[in-house]
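Appendix C: a fully annotated inverse folding record. The material below is reproduced so that readers can follow the format used throughout the book. The structure is listed first as tokens, followed by the designed sequence.
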């Protein structure tokens, strides 16, 4: 029997989610008003930020198993922000507080400046319907 290799490492998942968020931030910066696509993108960002947080926790678990306590602690401290950002965005979406949305995007933007975007590669179909799906789920527990 051959060994099963997981090609979706936490780093790969995290980088793909970050790339998608960076592209959405660029698209959202061009939108003059909140429309249905904006709401779908915001909801998709919640899902992607949760995915980033889960990949961080998976990486930390692996490092702690190997005894890299300081490395995992430092990494966890550097990546505390996705869970809080997801909770804040979800709160804005559920309470229809769209006047706070631009400020949240402005706070998120510096976290994605390291990603170079020459061409938008994500399709609008990736986030279509995310708003309705998020509202149909129970609210996620707060990370703090």
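Designed amino acids, in order:
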């Amino acid at each position: 029997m051959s060994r099963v290799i997981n090609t979706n490492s936490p780093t790969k998942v995290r980088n793909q989610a970050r790339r998608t968020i960076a592209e959405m931030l660029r698209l959202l910066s061009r939108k003059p008003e909140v429309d249905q696509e904006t709401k779908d993108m915001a909801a998709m960002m919640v899902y992607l930020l949760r995915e980033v947080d889960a990949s961080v926790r998976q990486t930390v678990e692996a490092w702690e198993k190997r005894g890299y306590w300081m490395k995992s602690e430092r990494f966890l401290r550097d990546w505390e922000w996705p869970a809080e950002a997801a909770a804040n965005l979800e709160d804005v979406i559920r309470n229809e507080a769209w006047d706070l949305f631009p400020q949240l995007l402005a706070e998120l933007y510096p976290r994605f400046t390291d990603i170079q975007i020459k061409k938008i590669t994500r399709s609008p179909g990736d986030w279509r319907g995310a708003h309705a799906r998020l509202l149909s789920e129970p609210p996620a527990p707060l990370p703090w």
